[in-house]
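Explain the record.
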Amino acid sequence: MRIGFWIAIVIAAAAVSNAQPLPPDIDKESLSRFPVIKRDQMDEKGKKSYDVIAGGPGKTVLPTGPAAIGLYSPGVYEPLRALNDYLRKDSVLGERFTELAILVASREVDEPYVWGAHEPAALKLGVSQSVIDTIKYGRDISGLGEKEAGIIRFGRQLFREKTITSAMFARTVELFGKQGIVELTALMGDYELNHLLLKMADQHLPADRKGMLPPR
């Protein structure tokens, strides 16, 4: 199965390469400026870091995306991986609202790589397509559930106005609690940081991520 997985990755990368020429500094396997680091290329300390970043022994870091970039600085990316794991699995927001918040952050910074991974994840966790499309196309949030609307409203204000008003703070705490508002902010900040890493690396989209996030 692992061989089949890597064949699929190579085919996807080739599809992108064939569709349009990659810039000369883009690696054809990673589709970014960073060549893929494989576990067997690392020393023993590096292999331990690799396993943490991969999500456990025996797992493989995808050749594209923030984790592949993060292997170039395990000291930076290991704690980010721990933060991401906590926020996605153990946050008081719950997994469904967590995925919705990731989509809000991804839309606000226009991050197609992250969006392409998390729209399907959100759907699997029960976020409706109509809610996803409200985020994707910047639609009015009237008619949504109060928590869905609250997360979207919070994220839009945070990213667009670079502040949270007293009224927004009070309403968000009412919906999610003080721990919830801290974790919601940290989650959106985590995915903004991932966006910056992807932009710095000029990460191109694999074929399976193409076209899911339309331009504004």
Notes: Residues 5-18 have pLDDT under 50 and may be disordered. The radius of gyration is 18 Å. The chain has two domains: 2-88+201-209, 92-198.
